[in-house]
Amino acid sequence: MLFGRLKALCLSAAWSRGRPSRAAGSARRCARACSADARGRLSCWSCQRALLPAHVFCPSCGALQPPDAARDHFETMDCDRSFNVDIHKLHQKFRDLQRSFHPDYYSQKSQKERDLSEKRSSLVNKAYKTLLTPLSRGLYMLKLNGIELEEGTGSVLGTQFLTEIMEMNEKLAETHTEVEIRDIGEFVEAKLKELTEDVSKAFVKGDLQEAKVLLAKMQYFSNLADKVKEKIIPS
């Protein structure tokens, strides 16, 4: 009898080990669901209805959706990925998006939507500021292509260029009349305009290394332009 009971217990244990438990089945179902999400199927966080990646608001319940982390600043602002951005269109898109996502419009919504509106509004502000000026836009385009300006980039710009920048900084520091300061400012702005045109040509040609050198020069002149603004005597 004892041998029979032991045999039955062993058979039962072996069967239990081979039988899929409810927890295991649940885990597999969860894994299948997670893998489905990984394949790109989206759903609304509020009503769970299916969504397309382009949906900012759920077409079923109207809830604001999380931003797509894969979108770059050009996609956020509905611009072509180009150095030659239509600034008027950029301004208009910024105003439209701010009206859609500004946290003030979500004060009566759920905490989830208030948080999402702040996140989207912050992303729009960042994208707008990055694309607004030629220097930050150009540097961002380099970054999208895996290129960044390293510290000490000035060494590749040549002694003549660095000497010119140093002399202009010294001249600006010694200048105290508004007329002289504005003259320097006009010269700096002309150089920035010239460099902007050259950077545009480099991007059109696809010469990213040339664009990198030109943008490094733009950084120096942009710093000079900031110093000029600080020194201009208020009228």
TrEMBL record:
<dbReference type="InterPro" id="IPR009073">
    <property type="entry name" value="HscB_oligo_C"/>
</dbReference>
<dbReference type="InterPro" id="IPR036869">
    <property type="entry name" value="J_dom_sf"/>
</dbReference>
<dbReference type="InterPro" id="IPR036386">
    <property type="entry name" value="HscB_C_sf"/>
</dbReference>
<dbReference type="GO" id="GO:0044571">
    <property type="term" value="P:[2Fe-2S] cluster assembly"/>
</dbReference>
<dbReference type="GO" id="GO:0051087">
    <property type="term" value="F:protein-folding chaperone binding"/>
</dbReference>
<dbReference type="GO" id="GO:0046872">
    <property type="term" value="F:metal ion binding"/>
</dbReference>
<feature type="domain" description="J">
    <location>
        <begin position="72"/>
        <end position="144"/>
    </location>
</feature>
<dbReference type="InterPro" id="IPR001623">
    <property type="entry name" value="DnaJ_domain"/>
</dbReference>
<keyword id="KW-0496">Mitochondrion</keyword>
<dbReference type="InterPro" id="IPR004640">
    <property type="entry name" value="HscB"/>
</dbReference>
<comment type="subunit">
    <text>Interacts with ISCU and HSPA9 to form an iron-sulfur transfer complex. Interacts with SDHAF1 (via the first LYR motif); the interaction recruits the iron-sulfur transfer complex composed of HSC20, HSPA9 and ISCU and mediates the incorporation of iron-sulfur clusters into SDHB which also interacts with HSC20. Interacts with the cytoplasmic form of ISCU and with CIA complex member CIAO1 (via LYR motif).</text>
</comment>
<keyword id="KW-0963">Cytoplasm</keyword>
<comment type="similarity">
    <text>Belongs to the HscB family.</text>
</comment>
<dbReference type="Pfam" id="PF07743">
    <property type="entry name" value="HSCB_C"/>
</dbReference>
<comment type="pathway">
    <text>Cofactor biosynthesis; iron-sulfur cluster biosynthesis.</text>
</comment>
<dbReference type="GO" id="GO:0051259">
    <property type="term" value="P:protein complex oligomerization"/>
</dbReference>
<comment type="subunit">
    <text>Homodimer. Interacts with ISCU (cytoplasmic form); this interaction stabilizes the (Fe-S) clusters on ISCU. Interacts with the CIA complex member CIAO1 (via LYR motif).</text>
</comment>
<keyword id="KW-0143">Chaperone</keyword>
<comment type="function">
    <text>Acts as a co-chaperone in iron-sulfur cluster assembly in mitochondria. Required for incorporation of iron-sulfur clusters into SDHB, the iron-sulfur protein subunit of succinate dehydrogenase that is involved in complex II of the mitochondrial electron transport chain. Recruited to SDHB by interaction with SDHAF1 which first binds SDHB and then recruits the iron-sulfur transfer complex formed by HSC20, HSPA9 and ISCU through direct binding to HSC20. Plays an essential role in hematopoiesis.</text>
</comment>
<dbReference type="GO" id="GO:0001671">
    <property type="term" value="F:ATPase activator activity"/>
</dbReference>
<protein>
    <recommendedName>
        <fullName>Iron-sulfur cluster co-chaperone protein HscB</fullName>
    </recommendedName>
</protein>
<comment type="function">
    <text>Acts as a co-chaperone in iron-sulfur cluster assembly in the cytoplasm. Also mediates complex formation between components of the cytosolic iron-sulfur biogenesis pathway and the CIA targeting complex composed of CIAO1, DIPK1B/FAM69B and MMS19 by binding directly to the scaffold protein ISCU and to CIAO1. This facilitates iron-sulfur cluster insertion into a number of cytoplasmic and nuclear proteins including POLD1, ELP3, DPYD and PPAT.</text>
</comment>
<dbReference type="GO" id="GO:0005739">
    <property type="term" value="C:mitochondrion"/>
</dbReference>
<keyword id="KW-0479">Metal-binding</keyword>
